[in-house]
Amino acid sequence: MSKLQRAPWLYLACILAGFALIHVPLKYTFLESLKQIIFVIGVVTVLVFSFVLIFIGLLALFGKR
Predict the structure, then answer these.
(1) Which pLDDT belongs to residue 2?
(2) Are 61 and 49 a contacting pair, CB within 8 Å?
(3) What does the DSSP assignment read for the chain?
(4) Burial of 49 (0-12, 13-18, 19+ CB in 10 A)
(5) pLDDT confidence of 42, banded at 50, 70, 90?
(6) Residue 32 backbone class (left: φ over 0; alpha: ψ -120 to 50; beta: rest)
(7) Is residue 25 left, alpha or beta, with left meaning phi > 0 and alpha meaning psi from -120 to 50?
(8) Is the pLDDT at 1 greater than 60, yes or no?
(9) At a CB cut-off of 8 Å and minimum separation 6, what does 15 contact?
(10) What is the sign of the dihedral through the CA atoms of 45, 48, 40 and 22?
């Protein structure tokens, strides 16, 4: 598999990691004070990599890639 063929799978894995950050239980851990920051990082990760996948899809649809 070439680098360009693996890229969408890597982006999908990043989206799943973002969802994991959103849903991670932080109660009774030392990271509970960072709960809001971790949530924001998860949301930003999901949004950024989703837009990248949509952009790649549009490029493929219009034959630019």
Answers:
(1) 58
(2) no
(3) --HHHHHHHHHHHHHHHHHHHHH---TTSTTGGGHHHHHHHHHHHHHHHHHHHHHHHHHHHTT--
(4) buried
(5) very high
(6) alpha
(7) beta
(8) no
(9) 45, 46, 49, 50, 53
(10) negative
